[in-house]
Amino acid sequence: MAAGCCGVKKQKLSSSPPSGSGGGGGASSFHCSGESQCRAGELGLGGAGTRLNGLGGLTGGGSGSGCTLSPPQGCGGGGGGISLSPPPSCGVGTLLSTPAAATSSSPSSSSAASSSSPSSRKMVVSAEMCCFCFDVLYCHLYGYQQPRTPRFTNEPYPLFVTWKIGRDKRLRGCIGTFSAMNLHSGLREYTLTSALKDSRFPPMTRDELPRLFCSVSLLTNFEDVCDYLDWEVGVHGIRIEFINEKGSKRTATYLPEVAKEQGWDHIQTIDSLLRKGGYKAPITNEFRKTIKLTRYRSEKMTLSYAEYLAHRQHHHFQNGIGHPLPPYNHYS
């Protein structure tokens, strides 16, 4: 099951159901802006292989800029009435286990960001991870043998791979997983999934490579909280679980940067997630209080295609790349 959690464009938000809005039904993946249809497990917030679209939109045919999680097997929607009781096990933020942090060298170029609280530990995410994603995509598009095992850490993490394109950095694809995956196989898998199988966009082509930006987000510090407002815009990503008007359990997620980029406050973000998760009834404060919310942080690295080429010119065979470096074409 995959997930997405990034906003494609700014949305007009309303607590009333949108007219003629379609439900996000039957999707089996997550987009970056984050809607999901069923509870997805413990730490990974999803069963093994749960895929998420972190920037918005419903994988599998949903519309809009949110991401949607499909229900794992055995996660039935229960056809009874809707319970408005508070979520169970509602305590003070319960910290869920996350992978041990591994160290890595800091890149000299590229854009790095962390929503984690200040600490002495080094960031795990690195420019080499973005380079590896570019390697994988380039080899696939040109029919070369896939690059060999990279040298960065192979610790397991929940992760997202995001592609943006052009000077205005328009979203081009974003899918990830809340299930902790070894980074070598996880980045290889979600590089191609986000580039070729994000249902909001056509598969990427060779011609788009020179205009791409690749971001790798590693998710950490998952905490279950009782109050749906107990998170900070621009710091936490959030995943919500709720019961829709038909009695089915749904989930949705936004990565930490989405609410800030959209200019949303807490209520606007929650309401957007509910709508993208397929909730069509009027949104009341009473209903918001029934939401089960998990907050998390992330480490994010972004690399442009030009930076990737510069990096690879100095480390051409370091990562097992046996193909010629692609020619760089300036933006048209």
Describe this structure in words.
Residues 1-35 are annotated as: Disordered. The structure is a single chain. This protein has 332 residues and is an alpha+beta fold. Among the domains are: 127-220 and 299-315, Glycoprotein, Type 4 Pilin, CATH 3.30.700; 229-290, no CATH class. Helix content is 19%, strand content 23%. It contains 6 helices and 10 strands. The chain has helices at residues 127-142, 183-196, 256-262, 266-276, 285-288, 305-314, and strands spanning 2-4, 51-53, 94-95, 111-114, 156-165, 170-182, 212-225, 237-243, 249-254, 292-304. The strands form 2 sheets. Strands 3, 4, 5, 6, 7, 8, 9 and 10 form an 8-stranded antiparallel beta sheet that branches. A hairpin with a 4-residue loop joins strand 5 (156-165) and strand 6. The two termini are 37 Å apart.
